[in-house]
Amino acid sequence: MKQDKINKSFDALRIYIQKHSDLKDEEFELVSSLFTPVTIKRNHFILREGEICRYGYFVVKGTLRLYSIDKKGEEHIIQFALEDWWISDVSSMISGKASIYNIDALEDSDVLQIDKNSFEKFISFSPKFEKMFNLGSQKSRIALQERVTNFLSMTAEEKYLFMINKYPDIINRVPQRHIASFLGITPESLSRVRKNLSKNRS
Amino acid sequence: MKQDKINKSFDALRIYIQKHSDLKDEEFELVSSLFTPVTIKRNHFILREGEICRYGYFVVKGTLRLYSIDKKGEEHIIQFALEDWWISDVSSMISGKASIYNIDALEDSDVLQIDKNSFEKFISFSPKFEKMFNLGSQKSRIALQERVTNFLSMTAEEKYLFMINKYPDIINRVPQRHIASFLGITPESLSRVRKNLSKNRS
DNA sequence: CGCGGGTTTGATGATGCTCAAGCCCGGTGG
DNA sequence: CCACCGGGCTTGAGCATCATCAAACCCGCG
């Protein structure tokens, strides 16, 4: 990776952290030493089903997805990650067991990679980093609970409308069939839902 | 509440905490001072939609549920809580905004109630309490992600089988229609799923 | 006993899936 | 510059799963 791009990656991380807490230069010095910049080409994997997940990733640029493959070979997207998001299989990382998920890139992407040990160092370095992480975890937990609630109570159309409202940036960047997968419907159904909406809007 | 029952409640909490970390007598002294024992009669509420959630609850005895009500008036169960589980609307608690959920008791239940401030004290009192809490949050997050994965990839029958396997204690204690609600199907459908399973098993 | 909540069963229907074909559009090579 | 290819989206017809509505059944409790 070019030095220029590396610098930009760390700039992005710094801005992200700074949003959540003050950060002195020497603190950021340490932080930088713990993360490794990595570029991931479109359709390349950073985690495959059956592997143990050893890293967390901060997305500097691009789009990644976390998904499972069921016994019929169908993909089911659990999470997207765009700029400024984190992605990883926390379950595999904590348990040290094989992951049931895959993570790959939907576009050429730049990420900052951090392994488990470095991450421990990172959050134990300062309480404010730990707070930042825990707050992020809570937000993720709340978003997942919201998604469960929606699965329990919404039709395909309602789930799509909710998503447009809550994650417009994802809608605008990700191919429709992936949106469908995330919503738990087929691409055909999503197409029909959209047709219906545009009809009723005009 | 009778003193005897109160003591038993704190015993349960102590055993729970001890499972996760050592605990000295004087530490537990403090912990006890932060929680309030409460009994909840069957069908009584500790949180209603529209209220701000001000407490977390540790279940000593009984069964509670967290659920939403959709615009058709249907209930959708997000979470059960049995002995040794925690229940609360974390989202409302963190944001300070009105909850979209209800929490009530499915049986006469004993819980230990703790308000937001006391909880802050609790986890800031010792790093091991904070660790315990964060680990619990991660586990909850992982369980929610698993549930999302299941919604995306499983049929009604598969979800039910998964639940039998993962939460047999809930299956054995909770009326069928509530299991159905948790799985996102109707009581009638669950009844038929069970019929099918018993047919194919014999 | 008989009442009542919960579960089961049956008949019918809606939502979303499957499979197959057509369409749109951007990229590539002649 | 245009023809053609291919991926992704759309459309259509038939179908499966699960929902709905209504009735019967079961069983514990007053």
Describe the structure.
Two copies of one chain form a homodimer. The first copy, chain A, is built from nine helices and eight strands. Chain A is of the alpha+beta class and 202 residues long. Chain A folds into two domains: 3-135, Jelly Rolls (Sandwich), CATH 2.60.120.10; 154-202. In chain A, the strands form two sheets. A four-stranded antiparallel β-sheet of chain A has the order 1-8-3-6. A four-stranded antiparallel β-sheet of chain A has the order 2-7-4-5. In chain A, helix 4 (116-125) crosses helix 5 and helix 8 (176-183) crosses helix 9. The longest helix of chain A has 27 residues, at 127-153. The radius of gyration of chain A is 18 Å and the shape is globular. The A-B interface holds A 68, 70, 74, 76-78, 90-91, 94, 100, 134, 137-138, 140-142, 144-149, 151-153, 181, 184 and B 68, 70, 74, 76-78, 90-91, 94, 100, 134, 137-138, 140-142, 144-149, 151-153, 181, 184. The first copy, chain A, binds a DNA duplex (30 and 30 nucleotides) through residues 155-156, 175-177, 185-192, 194-195.
